[in-house]
Every structure is written in structure tokens, then in C-alpha cells.
Amino acid sequence: MTIFCVSCTTWASDLVHVGHRKQLLVDDYVIAEMTGVVRELGKVTKLNDGKPVFDGLFFGSVLYDEGKFKLWYRAYPYGYAESSDGLHFRKIAHLTGLDIVSDNTATFYIDPHESDPAHRYKACYSHRTIRAALAYSADGIHWKAYNNGNPVTHRASDTSNQIMWDEDAKAYRLFTRTDFGTPGGAGEIRGTRSMTNPDVKADPTAWTLVREWKFDREGPEEWKRRQVYALNDWIYHGVHFALILVYEWPEDMSEGPADYHKRHNRNILEYYIATSRDGDSWDLTWVYAGKPMVPRGPDGAWDKDIMVPASEIVTHADKHWLYYSGGNERHGMPRPLAGIGVATLRLDGFVCLEATDEPGTIVTKPFTFEGDKLRINVWGDEILVEVLNRKSEPIPGFSAKEATEYKNMDELRLTPTWKNDSRLSTLKGRVIRLRFHLKNARLYSFQVLE
What we know:
Blueprint: H1 8-13, E1 23-24, E2 31-35, E3 38-41, E4 45-46, E5 57-65, E6 68-74, E7 79-83, E8 90-94, E9 106-110, E10 121-126, E11 132-137, E12 143-145, E13 162-166, E14 171-179, E15 190-197, E16 208-213, E17 226-236, E18 239-248, E19 268-276, H2 285-288, E20 306-309, E21 314-316, E22 319-327, E23 338-346, E24 351-355, E25 360-364, E26 367-368, E27 373-388, E28 406-414, E29 431-449
Antiparallel strand pairs: 1-29, 2-25, 3-24, 4-23, 5-6, 6-7, 7-8, 9-10, 10-11, 11-12, 13-14, 14-15, 15-16, 17-18, 18-19, 20-22, 21-22, 22-23, 24-29, 25-29, 26-29, 27-28, 27-29
């Protein structure tokens, strides 16, 4: 039940900022109430018949830039490859200038905030001391180290560490491993930490700790059930997506010795996502629900036991491309089958709000309408949109009875309309709510545009 207060303070505080940013429905940031609707994780499609698209391994990165897919993969030294279609890659070169010796881990980033072409590419890698180090490059192949080649953090870094720019926070973020137990061995308890730095070039060591954490929702012994093996952050329309490599049932070999056909469920690595509005407080719903973003393969598959996410997700050609490294045996075991695969996902399709046979409704929180049209990403049998005032009363001309009802839709950018030529431009500057009506339908996102 929504209770309205007449105080000006309450009226102001219940507004959410929407502007022209696409609103993803991964959480309740913009949602006031839902009836007959559930939040569901999107389903990916593995390309190339589920087989590897590249003979290599991560930790690493795939980025889309200059009209091509750019892939950095784990090798001795690290390698770089390119592809025009995201499926067929050509090895270009081995990297130079990175002192990656110990656990041979690195991720790569194209910095949108950087003004100096010599520093356009940045890398975070595991220094020989198992501490995170940073480097820069003009071409992604020839690298020079920051901080005279010395680490910029304390232990640990033997995983997928990451540097990235957060435009909303106006700061760089650094994600690395951290220890909650012994540094390796039987007492090792893996966790993750995040840090910020406003200017990496001015001082590559000036990192302020934001948070370090481990899985403990189920109590202090949860590390025996799951650990954070790695966490990278990918920002999409203001939402932080944690690409989490989760170590499930660490070191538990109760399912027997090496078996390259059987799909195991213990001592494995899974690819999950979590979401956040600040890059710190993560919604771990999908982890605890046991719903990976990219599922492992079936019995006999090359990716049946190990899934290692690339450091970012590529958005290209109205799809999200989720690259990963797979393996056909458990953590710490020899894996004769391994490689890099890719799965795609509908644009904005990470999470949807879904109604099934019974009609469902979604009402947004109030926001100032700052455009003249609305676009929605939707799939399903029946969809219509009405516009409400702040008190959730239909605005004349934009009620459900006056809305166009759409049937059998699969649209990434549907522009809803209303009868009698009612135009959203007449509502510009007003505080409104939206009410979506769905039946056998999924709503992925909406956006206000000029």
C-alpha cells in the first residue's frame, strides 16, 4: 500500500531521478509497487553450438572498439587477438612490458575518461609479489608500468583484478582479491575488495578502501560453502553489474577423482551477476538463488565444471556478448578441454519483470518527465502503458482505456501511443508515474527521450 503525505518535504523526497537514462528493472530503484509480476534472471544463448570460439584461457578481457572485438588472453606472455564478428579470432601479438610472473593474471580496459592517447589502454595485473599492479598503453600491446613497476596494493591479486572509470563517482575503481584467512593453503578464505582513486596518473598508489568483504550471509562458516574467487564491475546505464566468479564448495572432492564426462557440483567455479547502484552494496539475489548468469555445460561438455567471466560485457548489434573461459574438471584439477566461449543476451535482458497468465501491473515511483516520448523494451502477448499523476490517478488522455494495447510484441524500442493523438510532450516538466499492464509478457527497461 502506498501512503501519500501532503508535506512538501515528503513530496520532494519520494521523487526519483529518471532524466534520459535508460531505466533497468534489476531492482526497485524506480519501482513503487508490483502486482502479479515477478523478477526473473535473463537467459543467455551460447553461440557456436556451445563450443569454444578461441583456443585460449582467461583471466582476461574482450572489448569492442574501432569496429572489432579485441581479446586479451592468458598466455606466457599474455596474448592479443581480434575478430570482426566476435566468433572467429586471429592472434595478433604477445604483449610486452608487463611483469606478470606469479599467477599470470591480468585484465584490460579502454579508459573513456583518458585524454592522453598514450594512456588510452589500462591494465591491472598480478605482480610477482601477488599484489595488484597497473600499466598503460597506446595500442593495447606495448605496455609501460605505473608506479615504476611496483605494486599499488597489498596482497592478494592472483585472480581477475580490474581497474575502471566510474563517471558518476568521478573516480577510478580498483577491484582485487583479498585474504580473510591464510595467504594460500588449507586456511585460505577468499574475499574481494574495492578501492577508489580520483587520478591514477597523478598517484597510482592513492587508493582509498571502500569495502572488503566475503560471503557470510549464512554465517561465519559460509566460506566452506562459497567464496568470492573474483569480482569485476561493469557499468551499464548507471547500474553496476558485478561479474562474480564464485567458488562453490571449495576443495570438496567428495564427488570422486577426475571424471571428464560427469558434470560436478562441488569444488567448481560459477559465473554469477550481482547488481548495485553504488558499486559497493551488491544485491546477491542470484548467487543465493543458485542461478548463474551463464550456466555451465552438461555432462561431457568442455565447460561443465569451470566458468571464468571476461572482465567486461560487450554490447554490440543490439545484444550483450558474455565471454567466458571454461574447463571440464574442477578447481585444481588438470583440464584437457578448455577454451574461451561466448553467450549472447537480449539487449537489457539481464533481468526482467514478468507476468504470466494472470494480468500483472507495475507502477513506478514519481519522477519529473523531462522528454517528449517514451520507449520500452518488451516481449509478450499483451502490453499497454498508462500515465498517472503523482497520486497514482490516471491523467486524462493517457489512461488505460485510452492507451494502445499491443499484442504479440517483441520490441527493443517500442514507442507507446494513446488514442485521440494524446502526446507525451504536453506532460513535459510534470511529475508523473507510469503504470505498465502485462499479460504473458516481460518488461526489460524503459527510457524517456527528447
